[in-house]
UniProtKB/TrEMBL annotation:
GO terms for molecular function: actin filament binding; integrin binding. Pfam families: Talin_IBS2B, TLN1-like_RS. This is CG6831. One of its GO terms (cellular component) is focal adhesion.
Length: 333
């Protein structure tokens, strides 16, 4: 809306110059140049609005309005040239009216409620997510204020033990608030929540494998009927192969791209879960318990490695400066 208003005012102001009988030729040429720039900008706004809206009627209307503005601008330039050649050819004021009407039509249509932008607003959920950081930050400020007051008193009475005690008493909340602030900022960093979710999922996979191992050593496994040995084995192998391809993106995201970290680690659980499910299913079709335990242990080893990898990526947090955590991430890969 502000851009439209700016363009409209610029066009109207220079149309007044063009329509004035007192304007000299250089003034008119300069005014027409500015008008052309403003109308070109206005047309580009219309084209952009046409691309952005999902309403087919509005798409077409913006294009039509842009064409009308462009045509009116061209007609005005040609008409002014004709008047220059024939000074008695007509009123300049009448010549600018079509352009002003076209520009006014654009402004009115774009000002309809459908196209009025809605100011950004923080949701209740967003405010709730901000609260721990805000509270910790407020705690730091309040504590520092009290420390400064104590330091001021100490400067006046350096030998006063109660003042020293007061300074020490206020320094502790500041330290704790700073720690809470750092912890909250780290926990709210991109990808951290997703890493926690994946770690929880991988932990569940580990427990499922442990339960399967206990069943093998106790009463044995009941054969699953939703697939056969070949199908379960194929599921396990395919998931493991896909998992290998997802490792490098985690390395890159963990070291340099926090925005992609959540998606990258999410791919781990996407393939580990079916891999574990396939391995457990295959175990129910394997006769010998030794082979069953071998498959379970191998699968558990992969899951545990995945847990180490996700934890290392979480610690690196996509921060290029966290060089102390990068070697652990490389080792986990």
């Amino acid at each position: 809306q502000a851009q439209l208003t700016w363009a409209y005012q610029g066009i109207r102001q220079h149309c007044d110059i063009v329509s004035s009988q007192q304007s000299a030729k250089p003034q008119m040429i300069s005014a027409l140049t500015v008008i052309a720039k403003h109308t070109s900008y206005l047309c580009s706004i219309c084209r952009q609005a046409s691309m952005n809206t999902s309403n087919p009627v509005a798409k077409n209307e913006f294009i039509v309005l842009a064409k009308q503005v462009a045509t009116a601008t061209s007609d005005l330039v040609q008409a002014i040239k004709a008047i220059e050649e024939q000074p008695q050819g007509g009123s300049r004021e009448r010549l600018v009216e079509p352009l002003l009407e076209a520009v006014k039509a654009v402004r009115q249509y774009a000002s309809s409620p459908e196209f009025i932008s809605i100011p950004a607003k923080i949701s209740a959920e967003g405010r709730k997510a901000q609260e721990p950081v805000i509270q910790a930050g407020r705690g730091v400020i309040d504590g520092v204020v009290e420390m400064v007051k104590a330091a001021k008193s100490l400067a006046l009475s350096p030998d006063n033990p109660p003042v020293w005690q007061q300074l020490s008493m206020h320094s502790t909340p500041v330290s704790e608030s700073v720690k809470r602030l750092v912890d909250n900022i780290r926990d709210k960093a991109p990808g951290q929540a997703q890493c926690e979710q994946v770690l929880h999922t991988l932990g569940t996979c580990t427990r499922e494998l442990d339960s399967c191992a206990l069943a093998v050593n106790a009463q044995g496994l009941s054969q699953r009927r939703d697939n056969n040995l070949h199908g379960f084995s194929g599921q396990t192998l395919n998931s493991a192969a896909e998992l290998v391809d997802k490792l490098e993106p985690i390395r890159v995201a963990g070291k340099n791209n926090a925005e992609q970290l959540g998606h990258a680690v999410g791919e781990i659980s996407r393939y580990v879960v079916p891999m574990v499910n396939g391995a457990i299913g295959a175990c129910t079709h394997i006769v010998h318990s030794q082979q069953q335990m071998s498959l379970i242990n191998q699968t558990r080893s992969v899951v545990e490695s995945a847990i180490t990898l996700v934890q290392s990526a979480k610690d690196s947090a996509g921060n290029p400066r966290a060089t102390h955590a990068h070697p652990r991430l490389d080792e986990a890969i």
